[in-house]
Amino acid sequence: MQLQQLTYFVEIAERGSFNKAAEALFVTQPNLSKAISNLEAELNTEIFLRTNKGVALTEEGKKLYQYARTILNQIELINRMAPKEPPRLLSIASYPILTMGRLVSQFYLDHRHENISLKMLECRIQRVIDRVENSEAEIGFIMINNVQVKEIRHTLNYKNLKYNPLGTDTWYINVGPNHPLYDREEVTITEMLDYPFVRLPDDYFSNLTFYLEIDGVPLNRFTRVIYVSDSAAILSLLQTTDVFRFGPGLSAPDFARYGIRTIPIRNCKVKIDVGWVQRKRELLSREAQDFVGMLEKLYPV
Predict the structure, then answer these.
(1) Taking a C-beta distance cutoff of 8 angstroms, is the pair 260, 174 a contact?
(2) Which of 144, 162, 146, 142 is CA-nearest to residue 97?
(3) CA-CA distance, 166 to 174, in Å (whole number)?
């Protein structure tokens, strides 16, 4: 008796037809009939009653079905013990920005039928760089303003990381419907001194930002600062209070979905370089290449 014979027998019993079983098993009906005939000869008993409407189990066939079904179930459990192919991994470290969540969601939808695990780590630039260097992330998404660029480029070179530019941007003001300037088409930096602004806790590179000036006003003039370590909390504050934040034009459509406006700042000369980093001389996985292709569409040429 062979396991294949039991598989054939169970398939016929459950479908009630040699023809249907042959189609499901991708075998010819003559070969299927021969296998069952050999099984009946070996058991010295009839296990199927043939009729014009198909087949039915004999009493002995019903007993055999219970045994055979149990054996096949046990074989299936044993097969599940075999090591499975590990999922492919896309790991990203990113400067906190709503746009990245949208891209990760789109990547998931595009690859949801593939065996891919996603890991997205949201953190300040310094941690993004560290995580790529330490192989916690395959690629890192960063935004560098003009007072940070020298230090960050030096750090990337020292850590043997490659910077890949995507485009340039500038700062805007993000405000929600409860902010007095919500309906403005443009604001001045002086006007914003009257309102608190929300931001993530500082690291070394973000501290450099306080050397920036906008229209002659240094950012260290802003004394009403709310530090929040959670992007969801920042979003909630923007939606429900009069706080504001500085952010790139890149995220404007993503904020708009939550009723948050992105307003230009008069005479804002802040330059933001947007790009991604990777370890030098290391080939990207297929998943990372696909995601980089999505990043490259953020600033179409």
Answers:
(1) yes
(2) 142
(3) 22
Task: Give me 50's structure tokens.
Answer: 């043939």
Both tokens of 272, joined, read 């933001």
Q: Which residues does 70 contact at the CB level (< 8 Å), separation at least 6?
A: none
Cα 5 from Cα 262, distance rounded (Å): 69
Please tell me whether the overall predicted TM-score, pTM, comes out greater than 0.85 for this model: no
CA separation for the pair 249, 251 (Å, rounded) = 5
Query: Taking Cα atoms as reference points, which of 240, 279, 294, 288 lies closest to residue 117?
Result: 288
Cβ pair 263, 181 in contact under 8 A: yes
DSSP, res 144: E
pLDDT tens track for 53-98: 788 889 998 999 998 889 988 988 888 776 667 788 999 999 989 9
- Structural domains of the chain in order of their starting residue, each with its CATH number: 3-80 (1.10.10.10), 85-164+274-301 (3.40.190.10), 171-270 (3.40.190.10)
Whose CA is closest to 223, among 254, 196, 260, 200? Answer: 196
Residue 10: CB atoms within 10 Å: 17
- CA dist 122 and 92 (Å) reads 8
